[in-house]
Amino acid sequence: MDFTLVDLDDDDRAFLTEVRDFLAEHVTDEVRRRDRDTGDNFDEGVHLAIGAAGYLEKEWRPESEGGFTRVRRRIWELEKRRVHVPWVTWGTTSMVARAVAAFGKPELVDEVLPKVFSGHVRMCLGYTEPEGGSDIATCKTRAVRDGDQWVINGSKMFTTGAHNCQYVFLITNTDPGARKHKSLSMFLVPLDLPGIEIQGIRTVDGDRTNIVYYSDVRVDDKYLLGEVNGGWTVLRGPLDAEHGAVASAPDGLQDVTIMAHQAGFMSAAVDAVAARVARPGPDGRRPVDDGSVAYRLGRSTARLEAALSTPSIFGRVSQAQTMRDISADLMDIAGPASVLPIETDGAADDGASEYLYRFAPLAGIYGGTLEVFRNMIAQHVLGLGKPAYAAPANK
Ligand SMILES: Cc1cc2nc3c(=O)[nH]c(=O)nc-3n(C[C@H](O)[C@H](O)[C@H](O)COP(=O)(O)OP(=O)(O)OC[C@H]3O[C@@H](n4cnc5c(N)ncnc54)[C@H](O)[C@@H]3O)c2cc1C
To answer: CB-based burial of residue 392 (10 Å sphere; 0-12 exposed, 13-18 middle, 19+ buried)?
Structure first.
């Protein structure tokens, strides 16, 4: 790994200042507080401002098509992370927009992409169903052709951001008799169609996601992405991106693994607890002078650094697992007042480790569970073969 500092030229320095000023103006304490209250991980005002400034399009496009240079892309990503821009809905939107660009009919691409860049169109992922999400291909939501329309019936669990989005990237079953990967078709379904009902769900860390019901929803054929029964091909790109199956960059100007944004909460909690235990108490003693506190804080910090440096899909596992492992230790060494949440008088570390503790389980579920990722590593990286789930045959 290359730890050399990157020299910024005058133009890039000016860009850094521009971005900092822009984000300071738009991502206010009020935005962050509202985001915590709603659990949305999205703020429409901020999103539209980012779109109007041209940053959404520059982030989405490669440099060769007018996007950010590598250095500016890195500056933009790190500055957004530093000020906690609500980010989840842009993440899903930009992934789906790539599938629309690759597989959408020209009139659909024209309808959607300009508004994605202005911020007026957002898109969410409709994969998981109430009966199970790890094996997406077992999808039961049906789409049946009726003339030049399709009729969709079914339900999707955990469609995060649906209530702030205009379209859902919806995987459906169009041929129940076919082998499962050949039975799927992908649609970009407008979320304002009759027959769609979005119900909110709050998770244990306060995030909002949704269950979405589809009852006789009629969708024009132009919203079909790719071929009928070719939905798995359309899904592959966004799924690979979510699974972190992207090449690492030798210039060091990108995260070594996916979910680095989420890992930022872990860094914040370690910092907050380290500051807390370094402050002298009423008796003049610092908690960190206790050997067991120093040891456990040191171990958490070492685990954090190791997780942040672990590349590719190994990093996805290592970050979420580390979050689960160290959050309880951090709360413990920060003391009983660490159970108080953010912005509560007397909270030990302003709720940083308490939030991490509630967030850690989810970070190892969405985008694929840690168990599934471990199996992917075993099968595809270590070449250990497909797991066999059937009970051993009786001899
Ligand atoms: C906060 C949050 C946001 C989400 N956002 C979205 C979203 O926007 N869109 C969307 O479509 N989905 C979303 N999801 C769903 C998420 O992708 C699924 O929860 C996840 O893929 C697991 O599916 P499941 O919950 O149905 O569990 P199941 O698939 O039912 O799994 C149950 C248990 O069995 C284990 N398991 C299953 N299969 C295997 C296997 N092959 N090997 C080993 N263990 C296995 C799992 O690890 C898990 O412990 C979100 C989930 C959460 C919690």
So the answer is: exposed
The rounded distance, in Å, linking the Cα atoms of 319 and 304 is 8
Q: Which numbered atom of ligand 1 lies nearest the CA of 129?
A: 26
Give, as one character, the DSSP assignment of residue 364: T
As a whole number of angstroms, the distance between CA 285 and CA 297 comes to: 17
- What is the predicted pLDDT for the residue at 250? 78
Taking the centre of ligand 1 as the mean of its atom positions, its distance from the CA of residue 157, in whole angstroms, is: 10
- Closest atom of ligand 1 to 125 CA is 9
311 burial via Cβ count (<10 Å: 0-12, 13-18, 19+): middle
Residues of the chain with pLDDT under 50: none
Q: Are 309 and 295 in contact (CB under 8 A)?
A: no
Q: Residues with Cβ within 6 A of ligand 1?
A: 124-128, 132-134, 158-160, 203, 207, 209, 362, 365-369, 371-372, 375
Distances in whole angstroms, Cα of residue 29 to Cα of each of 2, 47, 56, 293, 376: 35, 16, 22, 32, 40
The one-letter code for the residue type at 120 is: H
